[in-house]
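Page 42, continued from yesterday. The earlier attempt failed because a stray header line got pasted into the input along with the sequence. Redoing it now with the clean sequence only.
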Amino acid sequence: MNISSIIPTYNRAEFLTRAIESILNQTYNIDEIIVVDDGSTDNTKEILRKYKNIKIIKTQNLGVSHARNSGIKNAKNEWVSFLDSDDTWMKDKIEKQIHFHTNNPKILISHTHEKWIRNNKSIKYPTSLKKPNGNCFLDNISKCKIATSSVMMHKSIFENIGYFDENMSVCEDYDIFLKISLKYEIGLLEDELITKYAGHDQLSTSIFAIDRFHIHSLLKFLGTKFHDEVIKEIKRKCEILTKGAIKYKNKDILKMVEDIQNQILP
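This time it went through. Structure tokens are written below.
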């Protein structure tokens, strides 16, 4: 089984070498490594010069969704895996996922548990992020519980359900895994096979009222077999947004919530 590994990066030169080396050190040889440089202005270019057998795609700063989509569309293999440039893989990650898919040929996507590090110390991630598996759409509607860096999947899934939403500056992972879990069974490996590093300037932690992006995604699933559950979740997120908007006197968010409620309420 040949694998293409895709690393989107933007101004992450200080972490990029660590990420790439974790791919090169896999116990299973990765057939293709693609780094999509999303318009970095730091010394990313100099870091990448050290690696001769990596496909480098340079784009304007169009966001992580566009970067991942560019990598997917340029990947030569049928199976792709993702690694954010501030994360790393355990050395046997791909070997174990290949073993899983070989034994479960009908499952076209898998993910794994993860280890979190902050200030060089392991930290526990919340029980609310318990990893889903199987036909798990409803397990994913509250928040994103699948780490993109842990995912390996067949490219035919994108051909069926579409690519990462390039209009979403954050929560694109929440969106794509809802789309996938609506139609596909998702496999879970119980091992911690990636490491995520907390504490630096992660985009998702700097965005105000992140539930507005969740709602933007959930609206796509009105009319599906989970319509009632989606409506319930949208209402719950609207309540959260309303409380925050009142507290911070944000009229734009209040107007957005009002528009959404007018759209979904009979």
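Notes: The mean pLDDT is 94.
Reminder to self: strip header lines before submitting.
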